[in-house]
């Protein structure tokens, strides 16, 4: 294994250095790419890490919907369901209507159907 040490501008500060244990093949790839870019291995590695961090930060956290969609677990609405959508009704209006609906809540209905606990 090869140890790749990266130093920041504050090289005297022990917290500014990172030592990474990488396989020889990775070191060779880094050396090759650094040579092609006209940079040192350390400079290229620092650049790659900074780019990866920026990309990850820009991506932001994924929503549950995005994760499910990527996994193929969400399907588009059927035509039947699309026809049931009332145009110009907001989510807030739907929530308000549901809170004002008469009768027991869905949870209460389910508990009633299940019956008493043994």
Span from first to last CA? 61 Å
Over the alpha carbons, how many angstroms does the gyration radius reach? 28 Å
What characterizes the major β-sheet? 2 strands, antiparallel
Structural class: mainly alpha
Alpha plus pi helix count: 6
**Element-level helix/strand string:** EEHHHHHH
Low-confidence stretches: none
Largest sheet, spatial ordering of strands: 1-2
Q: How large a portion of the residues is in β-strands, by DSSP E? A: 5-15%
How would you describe this protein?
- This protein has 118 residues and is mainly alpha-helical.
- It has a domain at 2-59.
- The protein is built from six helices and two strands; from the N terminus they run E-E-H-H-H-H-H-H.
- It has helices at 24-37, 41-59, 64-70, 79-84, 91-99, 106-114, and strands at 2-7, 17-22.
- Strands 1-2 form a two-stranded antiparallel ribbon.
- Helix 1 packs across helix 2 (41-59).
- The protein is elongated, with a radius of gyration of 28 Å.
- The mean pLDDT is 82.
